[in-house]
Specification:
Distance between the termini: 32 Å
Number of helices: 1
Number of strands: 10
Radius of gyration: 17 Å
Structural class: mainly beta
Oligomer: single chain
Length: about 130
C-alpha cells in the first residue's frame, strides 16, 4: 500500500464531490476510493485505510448531479423533502440513476482509459485527471 493523492478537473475546472475509484491490476480485493473536495483534490483509501495497493490501477470517476438544490438531505425539513419528491414526479424511487456531472465514459474504471501507476515511493503518486467531453 502507498499513499495516493491528486486532482480532478472537468473542462479546466475543479470538480467537487466526485468519487474516484481505483482498481489495481491483479488485486482481487475491494476497489480503492477517494472523494474530491471543493478544489478537486482527493486522497485514496482502501478498506478504510489510507493508500492504494502498489501497481498499475484503472481509474473511474463519477459525480452525480445535485438533486437537492445544494442542501444536504440531512439538513432538509420534511416539507423540503416532500417538494423535492414531488419535483421528481411524486415518487420515492427513481427508475433511472441521477445524471452525472462528468461524461459517463469515465465511470467504469475498466473502460475509462484513465490509469495510475501506483509506486511504493509515495512522492510519485500525485495524479492529475483532466476530464474532457
Amino acid at each position: 500500500m502507498a499513499g495516493v493523492t491528486g486532482t480532478v478537473t472537468f473542462a479546466g475546472k475543479p470538480i467537487a464531490g466526485a468519487t474516484v475509484t481505483m482498481q489495481t491490476d491483479g488485486v482481487k480485493s475491494q476497489a480503492s476510493l477517494g472523494f474530491t473536495d471543493a478544489s478537486g483534490k482527493f486522497k485514496m483509501t482502501t478498506g478504510g485505510r489510507p493508500g492504494v495497493p502498489v501497481g498499475n490501477a484503472k481509474v473511474g470517476i463519477t459525480k452525480a448531479a445535485d438533486s437537492t438544490g445544494g442542501k444536504a438531505t440531512t439538513d432538509m425539513k420534511p416539507e423540503d423533502m416532500m417538494k423535492m419528491q414531488m419535483a421528481a414526479g411524486g415518487t420515492t424511487t427513481k427508475t433511472e440513476p441521477p445524471k452525472s456531472e462528468v461524461p459517463a465514459k469515465y465511470a467504469d474504471p475498466t473502460k475509462s482509459g484513465l490509469t495510475a501507476a501506483v509506486d511504493a515511493n509515495e512522492s510519485k503518486n500525485v495524479f492529475e485527471f483532466n476530464l474532457v467531453e
